[in-house]
């Protein structure tokens, strides 16, 4: 079991360190393109170049350190069980909301989002979902838009 | 004017009805944030930040600071009654607080947590009042090299004190610097890392970043678990006023916790979480009965709760006197001040006496209000705890969305927040700490400016950081901190190598 855990830890850290390494390579190339200038007159890519070089070095160090590590460690797999699907659903709903809100307006898009979020964790009747979503939407609209004078898009209800 | 005159002036400001109202709202929201797991004080400050745009900066800062120290009070309630910390700073309170509740002593545990928090909070405000102004006067002599050195040291301290791997924390600080540099270059006004997106030319907003990394990611992580598993320990909550015996046992723990919390709060990356752990460890170490810790020792509740409240006052010191935020919540206050057009730093107190002294006085009042909110009204917070998470999480997500949108009325900020939410979620999975990223994000642009100006002053020579005493001493300290990490690692490797040879 310890061997499996060790492999998982290694894999996690190896993947993440490689991700940061790639990011640092991209950032350093981009910084060079912007111009790092000289020590006398640093350019706009100066700071980001050295920050990305350091990030790359540390990512590489982490990768080597983890790869050479021999001691066992305890951890769990990244996406254990089936509940991570809720995460995927919630994220998709949030992305759709961000796209929909400027077009459909705060009231409609928030009502749809709340209905979906209340629904995905189940255990409640559809009428409960609809009433809670409507109340949440109207109360937050009143507090943040009417009372605190926030400017939310009217969308379909802007007349 | 002396300190006494200043604080009297501060009370005049704090007793202004609108300031008093915002202080009350701040501490109520703070307690709520502390009681409910999920959003955290930095996220809550981000949520309510746009709401303060239409009030005076003094009222706004009073409210936002109230959220921060109020959350420290609220966090103890869940730790004691549910064994789940509402706030990271209350994790250690679970150890003895929950055991006290199981022994039918929930009342004294909540009582000593609230009184300890009140005493420590008040002491830390006195410390803030006495230290911030002289430190700001010293900081007036600081130039770009000193600022560069201070920020470097601050970031290294953050990574040094961060939870988990220091290597990963350093990497996160560098990622924070890179994200902080997105937008127009301050010297040439040319875009950097904007990918042709116009909205990115103003840079990444701190509200979407913090709400994504702390709010959204926490909700996503909780969604993976079975919701509503928490159970409130069913017990009578009475004897909220601790007995004389309880006071006798806890009084020194409260005082020690206050001192530890205050000084650790000043350190970048120190803050409430670290101080609560350190004070608990100190109490256990010096106790005549260390075996009682973890089994319901009242000192085990008094010390960390005092320390985390005391840290709030301490963490304001680098913000108001040096312009350097010590933790993510302070980074939010830093950004709030910038949005109000106020520059945090050595001239902050001199140029904004009403704001600083009003804030200090409001913290005295806020601590008193919190005592009233957390003792006689404890029943209300227990009811709040009973709200199922399946109802809570859509609301937290909605509040994050509203907060991120309201700052610039921009749907692009929603996408940014969701992106940082995903990043924060994965960072938690891969065990990366978000605090160094946030602090480096805020400090990155100042760091860059200081470095570029220092090099221009010195004609491209790095000796400027050695010839200036403060910069040299500060960077030397940072260097020693880094070395102190490397030496044990080398020692361990040599030991392993010898073992392997044998």
What topology does this entry show?
The complex is a heterodimer of chains A (159) and B (502).
Chain A: H1 2-34, H2 46-68, H3 84-104, H4 106-120, H5 126-147
Chain B: H1 3-14, H2 17-35, H3 40-48, H4 57-82, H5 93-102, H6 106-139, H7 144-161, H8 166-180, E1 183-184, E2 191-192, H9 206-223, H10 244-266, H11 271-286, H12 299-322, H13 328-339, H14 348-351, H15 353-374, H16 378-385, H17 389-408, H18 411-429, H19 435-458, H20 464-467, H21 469-501
Antiparallel strand pairs in B: 1-2
Describe the structure using short key phrases.
heterodimer; A: 159 residues; mainly alpha; 2 domains; B: 502 residues; 2 strands; globular
Task: Describe this protein's structure.
The complex is a heterodimer of chains A (159) and B (502). By secondary structure, chain A is an all-alpha fold. Chain A has helices at residues 2-34, 46-68, 84-104, 106-120, 126-147. Chain A has two domains: 2-68; 84-157, no CATH class. Chain A has five helices and no strands. In chain A, helix 1 (2-34) runs antiparallel to helix 2 (46-68), helix 3 (84-104) packs antiparallel against helix 4 and helix 4 runs antiparallel to helix 5. The N and C termini of chain A lie far apart (64 Å). Chain B is mainly α. In chain B, 74% of the residues lie in helices and 1% in strands. Chain B has 21 helices and two strands. Chain B has helices spanning 3-14, 17-35, 40-48, 57-82, 93-102, 106-139, 144-161, 166-180, 206-223, 244-266, 271-286, 299-322, 328-339, 348-351, 353-374, 378-385, 389-408, 411-429, 435-458, 464-467, 469-501; strands spanning 183-184, 191-192. Chain B starts with a helix and ends with a helix. The mean pLDDT of chain B is 86. The chains are: A mainly alpha (159), B mainly alpha (502). The interface between A and B is large, with 62 and 62 residues.
């Amino acid at each position: 079991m310890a061997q499996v855990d060790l492999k998982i830890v290694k894999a996690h850290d190896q993947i993440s360190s490689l991700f940061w390494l790639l990011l640092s390579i991209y950032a350093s190339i981009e910084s060079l393109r912007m111009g790092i200038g000289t020590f006398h007159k640093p350019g706009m890519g100066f700071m980001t170049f050295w920050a990305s070089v350091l990030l790359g070095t540390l990512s590489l160090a982490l990768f080597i350190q983890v790869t050479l590590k021999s001691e066992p460690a305890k951890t769990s797999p990244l996406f254990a069980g089936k509940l991570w699907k809720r995460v995927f659903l919630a994220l998709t709903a949030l992305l759709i909301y961000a796209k929909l809100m400027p077009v459909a307006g705060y009231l409609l898009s928030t009502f749809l989002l709340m209905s979906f979020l209340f629904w995905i964790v189940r255990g409640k009747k559809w009428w409960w979902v609809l009433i809670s979503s409507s109340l949440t939407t109207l109360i937050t609209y009143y507090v943040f838009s009417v009372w605190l004078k926030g400017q939310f898009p009217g969308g379909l209800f802007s007349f | 004017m002396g300190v006494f005159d200043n604080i009297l002036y501060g009370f005049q400001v704090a007793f202004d009805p609108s300031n008093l109202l915002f202080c009350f709202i701040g501490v109520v929201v703070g307690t709520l944030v502390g009681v409910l797991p999920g959003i955290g004080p930095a996220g809550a400050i981000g949520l309510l930040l746009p709401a303060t745009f239409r009030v005076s900066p003094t009222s706004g800062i009073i409210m936002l600071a109230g959220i921060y120290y109020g959350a420290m009070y609220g966090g103890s309630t869940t730790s004691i009654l549910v064994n789940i910390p509402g706030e990271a700073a209350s994790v250690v309170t679970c150890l003895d607080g929950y055991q006290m509740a199981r022994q039918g002593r929930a009342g004294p545990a909540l009582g000593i947590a609230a009184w300890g928090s009140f005493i420590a909070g008040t002491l830390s405000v006195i410390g803030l009042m006495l230290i911030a102004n002289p430190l700001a006067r010293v900081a007036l002599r600081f130039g770009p090299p000193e600022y560069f050195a201070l920020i470097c040291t601050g970031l290294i301290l953050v990574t040094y004190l961060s939870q988990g791997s220091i290597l990963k924390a350093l990497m996160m600080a560098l990622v924070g610097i890179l994200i902080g540099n997105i937008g127009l270059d301050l010297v040439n006004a040319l875009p950097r890392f904007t990918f042709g997106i116009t909205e990115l030319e103003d840079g990444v907003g701190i509200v979407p970043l913090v709400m994504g990394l702390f709010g959204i990611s926490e909700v996503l992580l909780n969604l993976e678990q079975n919701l509503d598993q928490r159970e409130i320990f069913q017990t009578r909550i009475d004897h909220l006023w601790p007995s004389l015996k309880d006071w006798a046992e806890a009084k020194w723990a409260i005082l020690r916790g206050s001192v530890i919390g205050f000084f650790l709060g000043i350190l970048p990356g120190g803050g409430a979480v670290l101080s609560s752990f350190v004070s608990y460890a100190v109490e256990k170490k010096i106790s005549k009965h260390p075996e009682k810790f973890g089994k319901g020792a009242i000192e085990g509740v008094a010390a960390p709760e005092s320390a985390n409240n005391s840290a709030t006052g301490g963490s304001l010191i680098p913000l108001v006197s040096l312009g350097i935020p010590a933790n993510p919540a302070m980074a939010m206050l830093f950004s709030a001040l910038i949005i109000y057009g106020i520059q945090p730093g050595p001239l902050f107190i001199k140029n904004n006496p009403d704001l600083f002294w009003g804030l200090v006085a409001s913290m005295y009042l806020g601590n008193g209000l919190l005592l009233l909110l957390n003792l006689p009204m404890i029943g209300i917070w227990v009811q709040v705890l009973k709200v199922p998470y399946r109802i809570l999480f859509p609301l937290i997500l909605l509040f994050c969305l509203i907060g991120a949108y309201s700052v610039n009325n921009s749907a692009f900020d929603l996408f940014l927040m969701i992106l940082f939410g995903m990043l924060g979620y994965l960072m938690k999975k891969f065990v990366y700490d978000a605090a160094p990223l946030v602090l480096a994000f805020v400090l990155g642009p100042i760091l860059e400016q200081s470095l570029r100006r220092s090099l221009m002053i010195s004609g491209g020579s790095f000796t400027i950081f050695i010839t200036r005493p403060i910069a040299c001493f500060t960077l030397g300290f940072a260097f020693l901190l880094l070395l102190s990490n490397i030496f044990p690692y080398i020692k361990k490797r040599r030991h392993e190598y010898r073992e392997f040879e044998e």
